[in-house]
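Obj: model holo form, ligand = magnesium ion.
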Amino acid sequence: MLIPTTKEAPSDATLISHKLLVRAGFIQSSGGSGLYNLLPLGKIVLDRVRAVIKEELDRAGCQEVHLPIVTPISLWDETGRSNKFGDELLRFRDRHKNQFVLSPTNEEAMVNLVRQSLKSYKQLPINVYQINWKFRDEIRPRFGLMRAREFLMKDAYSFHSSREDMVREFELMEETYKRIFRRLGLDFRVVEADSGAIGGSGSKEFMILADSGEDTIMVCESCEFGANVEVLSEENSTCPECGSNLKRTKGIEVGHIFQLGTIYSKPMRAEFLNQNQKLEPFIMGTYGIGVSRIIPATIEQNHDEAGCIWTDETAPFRVDIIVAKPKDGRQMEVAEEIYSGLREAGVSVILDDRADKRYGFGVKIKDFELIGFNYAIVVGKDIESGKVELIRRDGLKREKIEIADILERVR
Ligand code: ATP
Ligand code: MG
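Output (holo structure tokens):
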């Protein structure tokens, strides 16, 4: 397997997650600033995160679609955002001199999809989403996948015939996002946010708590309330919900939900026939998740001096079987037995039977700690007394276990 672990961190890396993800062989620079190759382990983690997001959205009744990454600029002209978006919007022409953009977000394109296919209030509400690559020509791409130029986003858009129904969906999405981040095993806060460039009113951000976060947030010490400092003056030190103390902390924005209203549907004349057979613009909400940003955010929150500590749902493999001496036939036999037993039980497992002199036992343990699989099972000398060693990555606690019990134990 292609897992090029290394001792050296890239010279431009300042964040621990950037250093560790490169050193552990999850990502590598593609040469261009803010553009990364995902290596096999990085792709596995991304797909696992994506799967949790898809499962929870589908459960909430959202429908997945796929839009082209290339969008005609004429759609952006309809809302005036072709001018407003500025230099983050990468524009280009095709051979016929038609102008396009590489999508940095997809409100216009999704409104265009819906206005072609929905005509009546009877077809509402609807929530459509995609999990797709976005491009933003960030002024200062940095921190690896955290602020890249190309990144994976889940963007959902809901369409309603009344404001109340849009607010209902907004609340459903808030609950759905909480389920997603809880399942991913992340410590997060939902905070009141500024509506920013996308506009509209009523917006909340989902923040992964980490000291290195770029956002400063105020969170209540006793209830769930939190707000971005941008919306709360900093002198304001008591919770508007319960009156307890607010404390300052740092967060990484991984999700953002907005109540949009008609600010896109109006200029784009995206309309439906209401109960009185009158045309009305769709009332909309939009809901984003920075799917690829969740990877570095997870590591900012969960690491130690030795390396990454993935949560149960984000780990590239749950178990790493380390064969101390792969040239020892008996060790290989035990290791392969455990390996196939775990696979049959549906546990994701990788077998480290690298036999080259360069990959001694110490290197294998170091790689396990650097990469951060949830558990290692060491198959070594202990097999003479019928035992293997189980190491839990979080805390590095070790314990000897009877070979006969290991499958049951891990399961
Ligand atoms: P930020 O304030 O971090 O620039 P944003 O407000 O521009 O974020 P949105 O337009 O709401 O972000 O995009 C939805 C989500 O996409 C964000 O919550 C964030 O998690 C993620 N995201 C935005 N820009 C990037 C980027 N350059 N690299 C990786 N993820 C990003
Ligand atoms: Mg931005």
